[in-house]
Specification:
- This protein is an alpha/beta fold and about 260 residues long.
- α1 runs parallel beside α8, α2 packs across α3 and α3 runs parallel beside α4.
- The N and C termini lie far apart (about 60 Å).
- The structure holds farnesyl diphosphate.
- Farnesyl diphosphate binds next to α2, α3 and α4.
- Farnesyl diphosphate (FPP) binds next to α2, α3 and α4.
């Protein structure tokens, strides 16, 4: 009875291929944001500790990165730890940090080989020394990647990011370096963590929750939002391709009217 499982597996792979081709035939986002939600629920439904959901979530991240490269998406941001996540039990917080350190060691080579440039965005200086060291090493090793820039939002909060930009601008103003009257949106954006990157065309949130939770509030003003019931540990390339097909079918007007 080995035929059943093999047949169903090839069906899934075929399905993925079809959705990849459909996605490639349409408009490809230049930047996709991911709110990776539902790890805890995924684990609890299996009678596992919540932390196992985060471990499984890393596998989804590992699967999605090559899929982004397959599609030709040049920028992606993954919300891994928000400034609000400190409210969680300290064991869970530390598990997440340990996972990041482990991931950075295990995947450094593969990321480099795939041409991924990885950057951490957020208040990284407030993270434990081992996490900062792992990030620093990962950023340094992947700095020449040209296929895909991956921002990992770590200790990231959108309002904090905007406030930080305002404070930096005030300092530049006090130093006589900028003319406030001439400060443009583009110049303001240069003070954000995502300076020099396109705004996300698409933001995907898993697990059925429909909010942005302080994720890229400035950059996401005109992002298309895609919500799926799929929990992050179950999110696979086929789900990404379906989201991109959905995105390509949207009419983006940016406040104007259709031509
Ligand atoms: C939300 O699920 C997920 C997080 C707070 C953490 C996301 C982190 C990962 C997927 C690991 C990333 C790791 C690296 C190495 C970058 P939740 O716990 O809020 O789920 P729930 O809403 O079901 O409780």
């Amino acid at each position: 009875m080995t035929e059943g499982p093999i047949e169903s597996r090839s069906f899934i792979e075929g399905d993925e291929q079809i959705w990849l081709e459909r996605a490639r035939a349409g408009s490809i986002p230049r930047h996709i944001g991911f709110i990776m939600d539902g790890n805890g629920r995924w684990a609890q439904r299996r009678g596992l500790p919540r932390t196992e959901g985060h471990r499984a979530g890393v596998e989804s991240l590992r699967a999605v990165i090559p899929a982004l490269i397959n599609l030709g998406v040049p920028f992606a941001t993954f919300y891994a730890f928000s400034t609000e996540n400190w409210k969680r039990p300290s064991e869970e917080v530390h598990f997440l940090f340990d996972l990041l350190v482990q991931y950075s060691k295990e995947d450094r080579r593969e990321l480099t080989e795939r041409g991924v440039k990885l950057r951490a965005i957020g208040q990284v200086d407030e993270l434990p020394a081992a996490v900062r060291a792992a990030i620093w090493e990962l950023e340094r090793e992947t700095s020449r990647g040209t296929n895909l820039t991956v921002n990992v939002a770590l200790n990231y909060g959108g309002r904090q990011e905007i406030l930080r930009a305002v404070k930096d601008i005030a300092r530049s103003f006090a130093a006589g370096e900028i003319d406030l009257e001439k400060l443009s949106e583009a110049e303001f954006a240069a003070y954000l963590y995502t300076a020099g990157q396109p705004d996300p065309d698409l933001i995907i949130r898993t697990s059925g929750e429909m909010r942005l939770s302080n994720f890229l509030p400035w950059q996401g003003t005109y992002s298309e939002l895609y919500f799926t019931e799929v929990l992050w540990p179950e999110f696979r390339p086929v789900h990404l391709y379906k989201a991109v097909v959905d995105y390509a079918g949207r009419r983006r007007r940016f406040g104007g009217i259709e031509a």
